Amino acid sequence: MTGTPPPAPQQIDTTRPHPARVYDWYLGGKDNYPVDEQLGRQIMAIDSGAPRAARANRWFMQRATRLLSRETGIRQFLDIGTGIPTEPNLHQIAQGTAPETRVVYVDNDPIVLAHAGALLRGTPEGVTEYLQADARDPRSILEQARGILDLDRPVAVSLIALLHFIADEDGAHDLVGTLVDALAPGSCLVLSAMTADFEPENVRRGIDAYTAQGVTLVARSRAEMGAFFTGLDLLEPGVVSVADWRPELAEGESDLGPGPVSLYGAVGVKR
């Protein structure tokens, strides 16, 4: 069963760059505007590896989803901060392994909402839904998700490249803690987020470029990233650069080339 049609999108501001559209431009997508390309090129002038990082992050999501679908038997996914659809999407990977998988996408961005129909083309046996909700309100997300997912059974919660837009003082740890507390044992937390551990100066200048556009951006250390998994069992290889997380699960990935990728990724399991 596919999801119900999403509500009509709100007006989209094309006069200011937007992180989701800049990310789409890095991935070679078409759902971006000249102002997004301009910021993307500005970031690339600081760090030419930005498109590599975007690809590596996307591939991390795909590998984590394959692992959870194939090896842990997870059949429910809650993807928060979904972003503009880029195939293969999470539900395509998960339902490719188990067609009965239930997937809920969550975002609060009119840009994502405008493309949400592409996220609802799931398998007849499974469920694919899109919720319009703010990541900073996890209780509302859980309340809505309960109508689609069985939270008494294991769920994989994905926060892919989301937490670096939420500072600790703005509730990043409360957000993650509220979600994890509501999950059944055997559930999983999948995170990726920006770090300055590998290229501190480039990342600092990139943050400055986003901040000048009114966008909050936070880089976290390996220890700070690991703190989100307190009380969870980290799957091997733990908190590592997204490019180095379980490369044996790669399918259809190209060579990233040498150099660091300034995003950490990890997967934890609730006991």
Model description:
By secondary structure, the protein is α/β, with parallel strands linked by helices. It has a single domain, classed as Vaccinia Virus protein VP39 (Rossmann fold, 3-Layer(aba) Sandwich). It has helices at residues 19-26, 34-46, 50-72, 90-97, 110-114, 138-145, 172-181, 200-211, 222-227; strands spanning 76-80, 102-107, 127-132, 156-160, 188-194, 232-234, 240-241, 263-270. Strands 1, 2, 3, 4, 5, 6, 7 and 8 form an 8-stranded mixed beta sheet that branches. Helix 2 packs antiparallel against helix 8. The longest helix has 23 residues, at 50-72. The relative contact order is 0.17.
Strand content: 15-25%
State the name of the first-level CATH class: Alpha Beta
Mean pLDDT: 91
- The poorly predicted ranges are none
SSE string, helix = H, strand = E?
HHHEHEHEHEHEHHEEE
Task: Enter the CATH topology name.
Answer: Rossmann fold
**Globular, elongated, flat, extended or rod-shaped: what is the shape?**
globular
Largest sheet: 8 strands, mixed
Q: How many domains make up the 3D coordinates?
A: 1
Cα gyration radius (Å):
17 Å
The number of strands is 8
CATH H-level name... which superfamily? Answer: Vaccinia Virus protein VP39
Helix content: 25-40%
Provide the structure class.
Answer: alpha/beta
Q: Helical stretch count?
A: 9
**Gap from first CA to last CA:** 31 Å
CATH architecture: 3-Layer(aba) Sandwich
Task: Give a short overview.
The protein is an alpha/beta fold and about 270 residues long. Helix content is about 35%, strand content about 15%.
